[in-house]
Amino acid sequence: MASDTLAGAPRTDAEISGLDALEIAGREKAPSRLRRVWSTTWPKLAALALAVALWQAVVWTGWKDPWALPGPVVVFEDLGHYVASPALWHGLATTARRAAVGFAAAVAVGLLLGLAVARVKVLRAALGSMITALQTMPSIAWFPLAILLFQLSEQAIFFVVVLGAAPSVANGVIHGVDYVPPLLVRAGRNLGARGLDLYRYVIAPAALPAIVAGLKQGWAFAWRSLMAGELLVVIATRTSIGAQLTYARELSEAPRLMAIMIVILVVGLLVDAAFGAADKAIRRRWGVLDQAGN
Known about the structure:
Keywords: Cell membrane, Membrane, Transmembrane, Transmembrane helix, Transport. By secondary structure, this protein is mainly alpha-helical. The chain has a domain of 201 residues: Orthogonal Bundle (MetI-like fold). It is 75% helix and 1% strand. The chain is built from eleven helices and two strands. A two-stranded antiparallel sheet has the order 1-2. A hairpin with a 2-residue loop joins strand 1 and strand 2.
């Protein structure tokens, strides 16, 4: 390492060698965890405050009567009562169970279909464009068929959730496998990886970021399909978030209706945050992100 003195006189920063400068740069203190959390939180809080302010401004204009468009104060007060009531948690438990079962089935179908299409050229030629077409089809368009097949039952909801989410998962797998560097595949084969071992130890880890992106998009389709299903297929003996939203609309309970919509939004944000954390962990493992998340 170059000395920090020259002829007994201290050296200035400009005189420090390139290696010394790199060493000093590496010693720079990383931002604290609290600062990193705040830097990602305050934009969300600012956007939320702006949305609430715009909401209140629209209410003040008198565009709609208060019974149809209540203000934020009334809605958040009702939200507090709703959170403290058993109705929310019973409905949320039913909706969460349906979401978990439907999404798990969609993931299983999507992974198997995606791997098969990515591996077999004939299947890719036959089903590749069809999977994309199914992905673009609105989930609600499946409900007339689902109700004819399964009547007003949970099976009808699961049917649409799987059809809505599985194509996104399959496309994530296909694109992930397609973009694995050929050099990486050749290196794996040279090291003795063949068949399933090649997919397990080389292709699957390399395709994981794209697969997670497909899972995230698949969850978004599954959640939207589930909410549409619970609005259309109301089972009287099984309360759910969607059913409670329908009841609030039928009874013209606007504060409760908007409170339920806020709950649906919060659930979506929490799941999105979980997928975001998984995506960051994967990218950090691959060296795309540093420990600070940059």
